[in-house]
Amino acid sequence: MSFKSLGLSEPLLKAIQKKGYETPSPIQAKAIPPVLEGKDVLASAQTGTGKTAGFTLPLLHLLSSNSREQRHRPVRALILTPTRELAAQVYANVKEYSEFLNIRSTVIFGGVNQKPQVNKLSQGVDVLVATPGRLIDLENQGVLSLSKVEIFVLDEADRMLDMGFLRDIERVMKLMPAKRQNLMFSATFSKDIKKLAYSILNNPIQVEATPENTAVEVIEQKVYRVAKGKKTGLIIKLISEGDWKQVLVFTRTKHGANKLCKKMISDGITAAAIHGNKSQGARTKALAGFKNGSVRVLVATDIAARGLDIPLLPHVINFELPNISEDYVHRIGRTGRAGASGEAISLVSADETTFLRDIEKLIDMKIKVEILEGFEPDPNASTEPIKPGQNRNQGRGRGSNNRNSGKTKSTSSDRNKSRSRNRNNDSRR
């Protein structure tokens, strides 16, 4: 199958050829035809399989086919993403694929001065890529209107809900015409996501490139059982002795990312941290350095688990396992992209035992376990999982053991508070 056989226009085929692509990926082959037919689509695929082109290419084809000469171009397509980094990446794809089309596009997100974004919007754009916070902010100011939107794309829909964006999504929906084409793309689809999807989409076509919630098969997964206090020494040993040049490391907290990054630098490993408390400029600089090789290790929280396109990334390390099993799939999906091989390593302490068991249940496989001499696990350590963002010695007054014993996941209240914090960090100004 070729891109031409999918029915895409010549200007798009020219742009695709310029990028060096010859054949569509499975998700592109399945999603592009129904989108071109004007149908609503609910698409699920693993990260690194080309989801972005799966909606960008047919969207641009439809807009260019139905172009109208207007003095001021209204927003005709809205692509909503959960994070700034993903918004910037999707916009870059839109720009590349529309190189030979009479299509204007721009991206808006928080954390940066809004004036350049406002200036761009005032000139008129056909395609707008946005994060929810800045989009609603500028709409409230009367800077933009969504009353002419013909195609709405909700990208990384499950991450949107994880970060507490449901109300923002509902608000954005009310700003657009009821009659429009809707597309939802994501790596996974929980029951909650499907419920949301069917409240938004109209008789959707559901396409799926791989079984839901499975880890990328080409990734070699490994667990090192290790004492909590020996994790830093182990990760530095692995990176240094393995002479690894490009390593993406995930921590559970922003403080943990900063602390680990500082320790690596003191040990002679060039490293940078990326998380919600970093300014947009710092985040962009860190990611650019990681891609060009001047930064050897990028230490990140789960803000970087979605959407970051780092070609041929060989190593991903979970310094701490995520308490939400699906996030493990997104994390390790940063490697093994586009058919390349990759390695995903997890450093697991006693209090992460429950998280590991939940992950293995989700991906339906047992992950190979190793123990390195000098970095053995603590046989006396508790296997009780701690709450996200809480240290083992905090919040453990009398009676707290009974109240928390047996719980393997954070409470609904905890998650809502966490998601609210993430949302404020990642999309508001």
What does this structure look like?
This protein has 429 residues and is α/β, with parallel strands linked by helices. The protein folds into 2 domains: 4-208, 3-Layer(aba) Sandwich (Rossmann fold), CATH 3.40.50.300; 219-392, P-loop containing nucleotide triphosphate hydrolases (Rossmann fold, 3-Layer(aba) Sandwich), CATH 3.40.50. Helix content is 40%, strand content 15%. The protein is built from 16 helices and 14 strands. The chain has helices spanning 10-18, 26-36, 51-65, 84-97, 115-122, 132-140, 157-162, 166-175, 191-200, 231-242, 254-266, 280-292, 325-332, 353-363, 400-404, 412-427; strands at residues 41-44, 77-80, 105-108, 127-130, 151-155, 181-186, 205-208, 219-225, 247-250, 271-274, 297-300, 315-318, 342-348, 368-370. A 7-stranded parallel sheet has the order 3-4-2-5-6-1-7, sandwiched between helices. Helix 12 (280-292) links the parallel strand 10 (271-274) and strand 11 (297-300). The protein is globular, with a radius of gyration of 22 Å. The model is unreliable at 391-429 (pLDDT under 50).
Keyword list:
globular, Rossmann fold, alpha/beta, seven-stranded parallel β-sheet, 429 residues, disordered C terminus
CATH topology of the largest domain: Rossmann fold
List low-pLDDT spans.
Answer: 391-429
Which CATH architecture of the largest domain is right? 3-Layer(aba) Sandwich
Oligomeric nature of the chains: single chain
The whole-number mean of residue pLDDT values reads: 83
